[in-house]
């Protein structure tokens, strides 16, 4: 790390202080919501914002918060999706060399803190600095901001893709590389103390890469969070293990307390068949993971090396669960498994439901990203009970259910779908 980069990182801690908001700080005026009829009693309102919304909208109870790749945060009405306020934070970054999101602004899902009534986002500015902002939920003014660029690698080739997580008074921001895996980067987790603004780091790999990019949140236990790590540069027989192709447990200070890696980690790394594409799920007494290879694992939450393998699917993103049934985000469509003992039983497969499933009020909401459709599935059978066209969707679009509405990020803003079908 250069002296200049170190000085910048130290100076960034001083930024975690109050900052004002003026009318000129607001983003471009959004277009009014346009409602179109769906099947039965369903309606779809499309709220056009100033850029694509990749992250799952956050719910505060009396507001829904969506953030765009143009670095603008919007507060939406939970009843009709109308814009209550907007705040433009910085000009976004334009990647060079690789990457499939251009420009790069706010990609990871926001998180809402009910204690402070702040909405947190990480915005990437035009110089590739990654800044964690805390915005007042009431009016969007900036209350705090701190730079969270990892103190290793080149920030130009990093992407803050996973959803932000608030846990034990810390906001966790997770970093991977760009699509195409170019440049000098190492996967990382920043743990930011919301009281002091101090930042502590987890470095995912001792050899570089090891992107941490699965778009959902980590699984949360009482004293640890579980994250997945992608493929690293250790990929030949005889290479020392570098920490990649793994599930890692971290404490609130981003210190590693446990780790699991399959025996096949070197060949997984060499063949881009790692575990890093899915967020771990804590359900039915296990930590459940299934990466790109299609091999699934049930892990003991207290001793991750105690593991049972099972045939799963190539999984990408956040899974869902209800009791002993889990719903995996498989690339070929959602699959349901019952976890009984140490051997899961396959229940059903919904081929077109290839997004990240969200379970609410007896329905499993999931997208068909290929066709720009939001589906409601019967959790017991996988049968489609509603199908609503919502427009072009970003990768890993994830619905947020608020009352009788479903809010879903699109390539143009947010679709608001009535949940009564």
From TrEMBL:
Signal peptide: 1-26
PROSITE patterns: PROKAR_LIPOPROTEIN (PS51257)
Keyword NAD in annotation: no
UniProt keyword Signal present: yes
Keyword annotations: Signal
Protein name: Pyrrolo-quinoline quinone repeat domain-containing protein
Domain Pyrrolo-quinoline quinone repeat stretches: 44-233
Top-rank taxon, per record: Bacteria
InterPro entries (UniProt xref): PQQ_b-propeller_rpt, PQQ_rpt_dom, Quinoprotein_ADH-like_sf, WD40/YVTN_repeat-like_dom_sf
Organism: Catenulispora subtropica
